[in-house]
Amino acid sequence: MDVTNELDVVVIGAGISGIYAAKFYLDMHPGCRLAILDRDNCVGGTWNSRRGYDSFWTQWTVGTAEFSDLPMPRPPEDDVYYEFFKAKHTTKYLESYVDHHSYGGQTLRDRIRFSTEVQSLVKPDGRWIVLTKDRVTGAELVFRTPKLMVASGLTSIANMPPLPGREDFRGQILHHEDFGSSNVLSTPKIQNIVVLGGGKSSADMVYEAVKAGKTVSWVLKATDTTGPGFFLSPKGKGPYKNAFEIGMTRLAGTFNPSFMNGINWWTRLLHCSKYGVRMMGTFWGAVDTATRRDANFERESLQGFEKLNPHSP
C-alpha cells in the first residue's frame, strides 16, 4: 500500500457535478490541495467519451447544458433535433471545461486521478480516510482529508442482471456502460443483437444497432406495465421549443405530485381535491393520447412495433 496522501478536499467523481463542485470550491480557496478521483479513464461520467456513441442524445435543450461561467458552442444543426442535441457535444464541452480553469498553476484536469476506484471510506478521528485502487496497476493508494464531496452519480456502477448459463454463451455479453467502447457495431462477425430492458439506454442501443444494419431483438418484461416514458414526443408548444422546456416551467412542475413543490393551496387543489385529481387525469390523459398518436405504434411498416405500446398511460 502506498503512503498516505494528505489533502484538504477530495471529490469523488469527475462527471458534471464533481467537476463543478471542485471548480466552485477552488474559486473560494484557490490554494487548497484538492483532488478529484474517478474510476474511469476520461472526463464526464455518463457523458464521457468512452461511453458515448453517435445515437446517444441528451434530454435537455441547447443553452441549459452548460455552466454559467463558460458558454457551450451551439452544436451543428445536423446534430440538433427540436433543440435536443447529440451527447458528444456535452462530452466535448466538459473536456474543454477542465482545461479552461486553472488554480495555483494546476488545471482541473491536472487534479483528476483517473482509473482510481474508491474501495472504502472511514472517518475514525474526524478526518476521512479514502482507500482507493488503481484499476490499471492494481496499486492501492490512501488519501486523508477533512472534507469529502461524493459526486459519483446514479449510473457509476453497472447493474448487470444474473444470466443463468452465460458461461456457455459464445457471444459477447456487455452492459450499456461498455456499449460505446465495444466493437459490436463495427465488426461484421456480429449480425444479431439482443437488448434487455426498457429504459432510455436500451432504446438508444436498439436505435444505434438498427442504424448499423444489425438484426435486433428487444426483450421487455411482460410485467413491466409502466411504459417507456422517454417516448414522449419531443415537440414543444407555443414559445417552447421542446417538451423539456415545457416541463421545466414552474406551472408544469406543479402538475406532478412532488415534495419539492411544497404544500400550498395550489398543490392541494391539484392533488388533494376530487376536482384537481380529475383535472390532472384529463391533462395527463391528453398527453398520453398525443404521445401514442405521434409514436404510431400500429404502423405497418415496422413489424412488431405495436409491442412497444405501453400497457398503462
Automatic annotation (TrEMBL):
It comes from the Eukaryota. GO terms for molecular function: flavin adenine dinucleotide binding; N,N-dimethylaniline monooxygenase activity; NADP binding. This is Uncharacterized protein. InterPro entries: FAD/NAD-bd_sf, Flavin_mOase-like, FMO-like. Signal peptide: none annotated. Keywords: FAD, Flavoprotein, Oxidoreductase. Belongs to the FMO family. The keyword Lyase does not apply. Gene3D superfamilies: FAD/NAD(P)-binding domain. The keyword Ligase does not apply.
